């Protein structure tokens, strides 16, 4: 006897429909799964056999063939347990001679325990979003109830295989998935920019970074406030839109980190350790999964002790910083994950950290300093819009310095600048940092006298063409913060000050 059930699988962060076909034929007992299954799907046999028997059903001692179609898509994960088990029960006639009417428009997702209980699985939200706008019903584990409710489709939750079988046969009803609880307070709540003493130049640079979604590199001795500033940076960013929240929640659902059954409404802040591998940073694995750059999508990626990251990990950032996405290619499949993150990196000026310090003597040789800085290649520096040098704060200054502006005050100015950009682009580039081609020429017209500034920057300081584009984008953001309709010469001059760590420029100014 043959039975067919509907389920779903993941391709990157998008759901795909899958048909789970179960055929039971006479012959020696055997069980096989076809349709490009991974190890977790093949291992479903033992879970399904135990779950079916412990749910009060007989498992047929015949030849059982399970086909997951379409066959060309790789099937990965344990969420196929439920549709396979239901297919076996239906094909053996335990749900009636005719397939239940509820099977036609129902989709099933869930991992089975050996006693027949349903366990939650990763990726429920992106899978269900593939059914958006259709008159169908999805059955998910009770542990995924809140996440499934976000999808906006008709979802039912169940705690066991027996409950789902009873619902299919019309003997019982399942509980509708409930909406998630209110969002938690944003990460970093309780920390404020006003707590950071001094460093007005760095604070100004981070305000510009937040307003235009520009990447930033903070360079300074230990204790100058690099990490303190970076960890408060998220408070300057605007609230997430619904589309951004949905996109971010999908990524966390696919990664298995989950969102506590709610739509993520605060911007992610990821801070990987410098020993992270390039695969963990960018994404990968035999079954490709999102890396840190994708988990920071629509949020902040903070890389402390930047030169201490491995060279492959640093260089792997080139494409995400330019294209805002990551494509992970393997022999059997290739998936693309979004990676539109705002990177804030921090580093010391030398291995010991005290080069140029007013009171501490640097113990590094010129060769050690050169090798340390050379870990950050020119192409990577080109992709970092704002490069800021911090100085040590003296005790007398620290004691006398007044309390600075709060995060809320700075965020208010940032939000006004962002609103200007939203009206300017109208569905195109979402921020000044994303401008390219025609947008760059249209919105970054040079004022009188600015050409000479850029010519000096390129010829004498060694800036690349990409660096000049960055300067124009930063200038446009400075003008937006000021409420100026056009870029002024002083905006260009200020923007140049944030590019002083480029290779040739560093030699020219003695960094």
Biggest sheet: strands, sense, closure? Answer: 5 strands, parallel
Task: Calculate the mean pLDDT score and round it.
Answer: 87
Give the CATH H-level superfamily of the largest domain: P-loop containing nucleotide triphosphate hydrolases
Oligomeric state: single chain
**Radius of gyration of CA atoms, rounded to a whole number:** 28 Å
Span between termini: 77 Å
Number of helices: 22
Classify the fold: give the CATH topology of the largest domain.
Answer: Rossmann fold
CATH C-level of the largest domain: Alpha Beta
Total beta strand runs: 19
Strand order of the largest sheet: 12-15-18-11-19
* Category by helix and strand content: alpha/beta
Give the number of domains.
3
Strand content range? 15-25%
The appropriate CATH architecture of the largest domain is 3-Layer(aba) Sandwich
C-alpha geometry: elongated
Helix content: 25-40%
Poorly predicted runs? 182-189, 503-511
What does this protein look like?
The protein has 511 residues and is an alpha/beta fold. It folds into 3 domains: 2-176, Ribosomal Protein S5, domain 2 (2-Layer Sandwich), CATH 3.30.230.10; 193-433, P-loop containing nucleotide triphosphate hydrolases (Rossmann fold, 3-Layer(aba) Sandwich), CATH 3.40.50; 435-511, Helicase, Ruva Protein, domain 3 (Orthogonal Bundle), CATH 1.10.8. Helix content is 37%, strand content 17%. The chain contains 22 helices and 19 strands. The protein has a 5-stranded parallel β-sheet. Helix 17 (407-425) crosses helix 20 (465-482). The longest helix is centred in the C-terminal third of the chain and has 19 residues, at 407-425.
């Amino acid at each position: 006897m043959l039975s067919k059930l509907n389920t779903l699988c993941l391709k990157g962060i998008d759901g795909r429909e899958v048909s789970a076909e179960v055929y039971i034929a006479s012959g020696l007992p055997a069980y096989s799964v076809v349709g490009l299954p991974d190890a977790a799907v093949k291992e479903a046999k033992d879970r399904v056999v135990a779950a079916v028997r412990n749910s009060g059903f007989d498992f047929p001692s015949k030849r059982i063939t399970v086909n997951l179609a379409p066959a060309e898509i790789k099937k990965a994960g344990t969420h196929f347990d439920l549709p396979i088990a239901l297919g076996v029960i239906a094909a053996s006639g335990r749900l009636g001679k005719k397939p239940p009417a509820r099977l036609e428009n129902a989709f099933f997702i869930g991992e089975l325990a050996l006693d027949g209980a349903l366990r939650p699985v990763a990726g429920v939200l992106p899978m269900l979003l593939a059914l958006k706008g259709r008159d169908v019903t999805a059955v998910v584990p009770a542990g995924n109830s809140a996440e499934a409710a976000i999808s906006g489709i008709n979802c039912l939750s169940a705690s066991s295989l027996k409950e789902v079988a009873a619902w299919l046969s019309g003997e019982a009803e399942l509980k509708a998935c409930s909406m998630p609880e209110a969002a938690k307070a944003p990460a970093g709540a309780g920390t404020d920019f006003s707590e950071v003493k001094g460093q007005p130049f760095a604070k100004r640079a981070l305000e510009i970074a937040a307003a235009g979604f520009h990447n930033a590199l903070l360079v300074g001795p230990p204790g100058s406030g690099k990490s303190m500033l970076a960890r408060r940076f998220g408070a300057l960013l605007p609230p997430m839109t619904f589309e951004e929240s949905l996109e971010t929640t999908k990524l966390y659902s696919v990664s298995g980190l989950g969102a506590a059954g709610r739509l993520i409404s605060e911007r992610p802040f990821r801070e990987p350790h410098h020993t992270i591998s390039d695969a963990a940073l960018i994404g990968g694995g035999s079954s490709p999964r999102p890396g840190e750059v994708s988990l920071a999508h629509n949020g902040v990626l903070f890389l402390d002790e930047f030169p201490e990251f491995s060279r492959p990990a640093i260089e792997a950032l080139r494409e995400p910083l330019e294209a805002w996405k990551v494509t992970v290619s393997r022999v059997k499949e290739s998936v693309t994950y979004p990676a539109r993150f705002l990177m804030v990196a921090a580093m010391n000026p030398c291995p010991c950290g005290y080069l140029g310090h007013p009171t501490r003597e640097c113990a590094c040789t010129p060769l050690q300093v050169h090798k340390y800085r050379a870990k950050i290649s020119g192409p990577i520096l080109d992709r970092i819009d704002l490069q800021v040098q911090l100085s040590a704060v003296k005790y007398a200054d620290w004691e006398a310095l007044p309390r600075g502006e709060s995060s809320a005050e700075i965020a208010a100015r940032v939000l006004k600048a962002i609103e200007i950009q939203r009206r300017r682009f109208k569905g195109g580039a979402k921020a000044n940092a994303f401008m390219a081609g025609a947008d760059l020429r249209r919105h970054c017209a040079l004022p009188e006298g600015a050409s000479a500034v850029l010519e000096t920057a390129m010829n004498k300081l060694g800036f690349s063409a990409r660096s000049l584009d960055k300067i124009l984008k930063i200038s446009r953001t400075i003008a937006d913060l000021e409420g100026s309709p056009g870029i002024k010469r002083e905006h260009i001059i200020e923007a140049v000050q944030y590019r002083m760590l480029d290779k040739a420029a560093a030699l020219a100014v003695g960094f």
